[in-house]
Amino acid sequence: MTNETTDYQHHPASFKDPSGFVFKANEKYYRQVNKSYAEDYDLLMSSGLYEKLVEKKLLIPHTEVNENLYNSPDWYKTLLPEQLPFISYPYEWSFDELKDAALLTLRVQKIAVKHGMILKDATSFNVQFYEGRPVFIDTLSFEKYDESKPWIAYRQFCECFLFPLLIEHYLKIDVQKLLSVYLEGIPACTTAKLLPAKSRFKLSVWLHVFLQASVNSNNKPTNKAATASFSKAKLLNLIESLQTAIKPLHVKTTIQSTWNNYYGETILSKNYLDAKEKIFRDFVNDINDGRTMDVGCNDGYFSRILAEKNPNVIAVDFDSQCVNKLYLDIKSGAIKGILPLCIDLTNPSPAVGFNHAERQSFAERAKADTVTALALIHHIVLSKNVPLPDVAKMLADLTKKYLVIEFVPINDEKSQQLIANKTTYHKPYDPAAFEAHFSTYFQTERKQVIPGTERILYRLKKR
Amino acid sequence: MKIFLLYIDPGSGSYLVQMIIAGVLAGLFYFKNLWWKIKSFFTKNKKEDTTDND
Q1: Contacts of A107 in chain B (CB under 8 A)
Q2: Which residues of A306-344 are buried (b: 16+ CB within 10 A; e: fewer)?
Q3: Whether pLDDT at A252 is above 90
Q4: Which pick of A113, A117, A131, A145 has the fewest CB atoms within 10 Å?
Q5: A229 contact B CB<8A
Q6: Contact with chain B for residue A459, Cβ under 8 A
Q7: Higher local confidence (pLDDT), A225 or A146
Q8: What's the complex ipTM?
Q9: The predicted structure's pLDDT at residue A3
């Protein structure tokens, strides 16, 4: 493929589907539609399906750019989709984010079938979170529906959505780590081995997991089944069965996770929180624009304060239950500008996939104008044993302009809990050492002790 | 004629599984509908509309 201008970069994750590809030009992402997909693209636009999906905010809207920007011989159309502020991956989503992405995919599929089209792929990477809700982003995933054929992407849907959800539902484990390894979804045979025996008594689980696993392992590659006739009614039954299987799945919120109810339980609780909020509001008031990231967001108390004035807040925490609770709160509330993600700052998402480029690392994506890190540093230094200079560098790498950070001293009740069973920790760990190491990358603009505690809130400006 | 029709592998058994599942589900929905008809005959309640307005 020739490309005269070096500004036009083919997106490293957009190579699987020959229908077209995504490329970046002048800081914008475009999608080329190839000639081979022309018929399906025209059907998407003329059948009313595109209009319907966009009207319901299920599909990312686009405008057509009548120019062969990439100078490609396969060119049919160039699309400029509405630009997303941040790309997140399924292994960064909490349970209910993955569940809503699954239900969105099925809903899109159902509407597509009504319009004579069908999803030819159903990977979870086709969904992104935008304005507090999942949205389907792959405009080229639709093809003309042949009623005699089953759903080609059924297995992919199960592996990317249903199986991970079932594993988390039944085993009560964070499925994110598994998904970061199984980029194309968790296979049926693996899922069948992981799920407890009692799950077999659920018809939907038996059909979609155990039956599929046994057929996949016993059946030699053949096209006989593919030629047997299917029907629209059968397909709609299948979709409904998947919806019915997914809707009741849940994670137990009664489990006390590490941070769940952190603020509720602490004896510092009310006065401390009020005092901290007052200083925090004062510190972020004039720097809360562009992308703001709340690292170690816990239940999102402070993310919400940021989102009152800023629609582009990313809230991350390593505790997936906290993130899930925040997502559910956002979903039912008025504030939509928060994207909650499961990220462990001491082990963030790596660059994975083909050429290490298909899925970017968290650090490559996550640079934010303002970063807030409240009641976090003692966990990184004292629990995870990361030395202060390394924490300073890590936060400096994430921050473009400002860092609002709370220093929790060693005498603090929470710090004492963390070192209770430790013989040693990285010393010195005190305000003077903190200021010295952070001054390599930042200059201190504001500094205030939170009344009634020895904790200090800083507003630092990147050098 | 489309060359790239099957760009993802549906899996050797995926079509067969869908045929079986569709068969089982058809049976289930038949009995479910029958049950609704019997129930509504006695209770004179209309079946709830479960479609999601799409």
Answers
A1: 52, 54
A2: bbeebebbbbbbbbbbbbbbbbbebeeeebebbbbbbbb
A3: no
A4: A131
A5: no
A6: no
A7: A146
A8: 0.76
A9: 46
